[in-house]
Amino acid sequence: MPSYSVALLAPRDPASGSGWQRILDQEGVPHHLATSAADLPGSALLLGEGELPEWAAEHIRAGGVGVLSGARALPDHEPGLAQRVRAVISGFTTPGGRWAAAPGPVTLLPRGTHPARPGAGSFRVHEDRVPKYDSDPDVLPVLATHGIGRGTLLYSPVALTELLMAEGDRLRRFSELSLVTERVSAIDKADVADTLLALLRAGFRRAGLPLVRLGRYPGGAPSVLIVRVDVDGAFAPRTQMLLDATTAADLPASFFVNADLCRAHPGLPEEWPAAVEVGQHADVHTAFDTVDENLRNLRAGAAWVEERTGRTVRSFVAPRGLWNPALGTALRTLGYPYSSDFGLDFDSLPFRDSSGLLQVPVHPYSPERARRWADETGEAPLGAAETAAYYEAVARRQIALGRPVHIYGHPEVLGQMAGVVVPALAALARAAGLAVRTLGEYAAFWQRREQMRLAAAYDDATGVLELKTAAGERDGVTIVVEPSATTSKVVLDGTAYPVVPGRELVLEGTR
Q: What is the pairing mode between strands 479-482 and 454-459?
């Protein structure tokens, strides 16, 4: 039976990491590194960045399928269609119709290419122009195709993988659901990741193969709800009000305490229920440029929180959207398993940052920042019912997009709204069938998921997909198969499952 694995070409800049590697790891797609033609036989398809090496192009000419992010040149393009210059864009429309902030250069490739499928996204060379004379030139596809010999190259002129791995943040609007601004990643990386997944799916469709990936949430739930409180000042009794509301709603929550701001605004609860996660949010509410400075800040923060709460602190979320590699290295040195910083990414799936630390992105809206934004702009601030409605809208959007519902706030304002907002979130979670977890619990699930490795083989003649997992239980991790038109049967660890054409097959995560 032929092997089934995505061949991943080495990134153009190994030091900056591979955006394709992040996508394959996040989705749990079986893959291997390809450094020569010897690594390609039996591959489902190959993924690359920028330009294809000649040995990879030859594989496509022979009938293979390639997928290229940030294409700078197309092999075997039609004579006379010279490559055009580079352009700079502020963003693009995703295949799903969402606008994604994605500032950076694109290569204007030869005319004659066409979208990989209808609605494959677009970008404009001439941004913010009013079309005149029935002319709107240079509106180009984000996903396109190019024939090479007997095979096909699916590609994007937008450097999606580079955007996914880039750092940098700015004060900006971050959601179509609100005008509020926050200091967040300059790139809408969740939308970039979704576009890369759309490109990967298009490659599998073109190859006539099923796509195998791991479920994103415990037990196959449609999403997860994480309620997080950054205690930037306890503001008695508001922290207690949040704690009481989440406990009454049976909604496990995560509280991350900053020492300096709680010294200025005291009033932490005397007792913390066992179901509540208590972590730290640093001693001084900032990040530093060196590992040593960050280590001192983390150690002092943990010591203060442990003394005040009586809980052993082993979790942390970053303050102010100021993530840098020195902070990541300090956290790994101290054995912290994860962090979360919307200056690096938001609304996305968990991923490993450049320091190797697990990041669990959050939605960056908080009632506290919204209140300050309202003061700055003269807008009316949202009340408790309106805030609950906003969080519910965010949750529905995230669920529809297959993303986590990870929301947060602070005691200063959210504490006063707790009696309205928290029950509304709990009701939504029950109605939508969400997995409700603390931030630490979801991070632990993701770490278990990372350890799961699928071996896969596909028989083109019979349409049978055979899957094998490593020894041990899958511990709540589901396996999702998106069948091809010819998939007849899926066999997982010796057990056969029927396939319904056009429908995902979700294989339960426990044996």
A: unpaired
